[in-house]
Amino acid sequence: MSAITVSRALRNPDTVSAKLRNSIDTAISTLGYVPNLAASRLASARSHSVGVIVPTLYNVIFAEYLQAIHEVLLPARLQPLVVNSRYSAEAEEVAIRTLLGQRVEAIIIVGTEHTPAARRLLETAHIPVVETFARSANPIGMNIGFKLDQAGIDATRYLIELGHKEIGFLVGAIDERASHRLDGYRLAMKEAGLDPVRHVVTMPELNSVGLGVALVEEVAKRGTVPSALFCIDDNVALGALHALRSRGLTVPGDVSVLGFHDLDFAACTVPALSTVATNRYKTGALAAEMTVKALNSPGSKRRKWHDVGYRLVPRASTGPARARV
Q1: What CATH number should be reported for the domain holding residue 134?
Q2: Contact assessment for residue 156 and residue 188, using Cβ atoms and an 8 Å cutoff
Q3: What is the pLDDT of residues 45-72, one digit of tens each?
Q4: I need a labelling partner for 113 at 20 to 30 A (CA). Which of 33, 183, 191, 320 fits?
Q5: Are residues 66 and 139 in the same domain?
């Protein structure tokens, strides 16, 4: 068979017969052949790759999101190139430059706030860009997410409606998305005539179970533990449950605990964790689907915003405030 035939089969397997494709696959396996992607990109002006930038690979919160992106892009013969920006705007800018240098055909990115240079790079790249997780009033391209500040408001109001007046907010390093949830907490507290500052406890670390323990210990050092704790995510909430139990406090009898994201373990903690469910898988799937559509129909009109919403999930870890003696 000719080199041209082999090349065509590698680029578009459906253009050759199954028998010929099997013969080529056998030869490739025997020879250990790896296509020269750099040469292919130069010849076709396509890289068949999509850059995906996430703030961390440490937190399981992004696992479903990345899984969904892979499940949509791979059947479309697009390879996700995942880069970790480490919650750093500067590192994100470097990641964008690196991915554009690799000639990715689109970029899917967590967050909507970027350095001026990063935003300029994305705006002038002339490729599909999808910003995810947060809603933006001025998206670069497409935007999929939900109103994080409103989610913070609704979660805090839920605790207030249970009668809690002392509500703590536990968070690690405050990034864009945490900042919006904190804004919502503060607004809801102010609306109810409650102190929006006193019980905010933060440490410059990644959110984790261990951090949840440390944050509760810090709360305790400041005096009486609030009757409710709104945790930035379920990992922190799980640590808080452990720390409160270690201090002889009952949940929700002494302290109500509310998480965020509704991770797999949330319904299985003791007591089961009240939380705010977010649509992480749906966010990733929609981002990938919109990317594929934009690449296949570059001139077509496409939806600019998509709100995936959220929902409050009350469970056994929250209850009515009780009078303290």
Answers
A1: 3.40.50.2300
A2: yes
A3: 688 999 999 999 988 999 999 999 999 9
A4: 191
A5: yes
